[in-house]
Amino acid sequence: MYRMKFKNGLSNMLNIKKILRRIKLTNSKTAYIELSNICNAKCIFCPYLTIEESGKKLTTMDNGIFEKSIDYAVKLGYEKFSFTPVTGEIFINKNWAEYIRNALLNGKVRRIYFYSNAILLNSENIEKILSLPNKDKILFLGFSLGGIEKDTYKRMFGVDKFNIVRKNINNFCRDLKKQKQRIRINCVLYVPKDYQYTKKVVSSIFNRAKYKYFNVVIPRPFLSFPGIKRYNNLDYRNAKEKNEPCSCLKNIRFATNGDVWLCGCVTSELPNDESLKIGAISDKIDVITENKNNILRNWKLKKIIPLACQKCTKYVPEK
Length: 319
Ligand code: SF4
Ligand code: SF4
Hints:
The protein is of the alpha/beta class and about 325 residues long. Helices cover about 35% and strands about 15% of the residues. The protein is built from ten helices and nine strands. It has a nine-stranded mixed β-sheet with strand order 6-5-4-3-2-1-7-8-9, with helices on one face. The chain starts with a helix and ends in a 9-residue tail after the last helix. Bound molecules: iron/sulfur cluster (SF4) (2 copies). One iron/sulfur cluster (SF4) binds next to helix 10. One iron/sulfur cluster (SF4) binds near residues 248 and 309.
């Protein structure tokens, strides 16, 4: 009996250690690899349309830039990777699955995740996800939704794709369940403030197969962006006082064209603002590190806040 208790105690301890390791990695610094900065939606809460009109070169990442970006990030000590673009849709890059496969096979990459709008989550892309190696490294796959019916979706996402998205996510959940997969799915709802829904109703619409690892995320109020239209029926976050450097500055982003930026959130690169750009993958690592440290030092010691961060409503103070 004592032996049994000891065994149980040991296995509990190992489980706790495993959970703590997982939490630590989930909260650790993230390298964003942007496989596409082209999007197939026109969400009213996103600066994508303004970025498109600004004349920014919209493109997908090529293999050379991808390999250098992963290599660079690993050398900088990143173990967690997000393939969510600042603005853009991952599945627009036709080679997205090859890049994710390479990342999952890289021994230094411990966790990956990405968000998509699921418009291109067709049977071909579902098959590609199911064929990925080392799926235990996938932290979650996220899908952004503009409501639980056609009209609100169209109003929020600017395109008439609700039925396609509903079908795609349902098919994906069905196939995940059939294959006894354990990939966590997070569906995030971007809806007006008076929108009525419950997590249960959302699940009944997008997860008819009742796939066990399906999660509905109700996001905090929307971010607002300087120079971008605000809507009365959306709830926006207020800007906070920014004393300490934002903790998102520990994150790094490798853009489609090989430029390297700090942070990876949607506010970090807006038209006519390169305040968080710290170089390119053709630069030496020392140069990138020095540029990053300069931004942090300026904020911490001289209270010089990068332009992108000044009006950012996402700001996350260091704990
Ligand atoms: S929120 Fe995402 S899906 Fe919508 S326009 Fe912006 S990048 Fe595209
Ligand atoms: S304040 Fe905003 S833009 Fe600046 S690092 Fe934080 S999240 Fe990124």
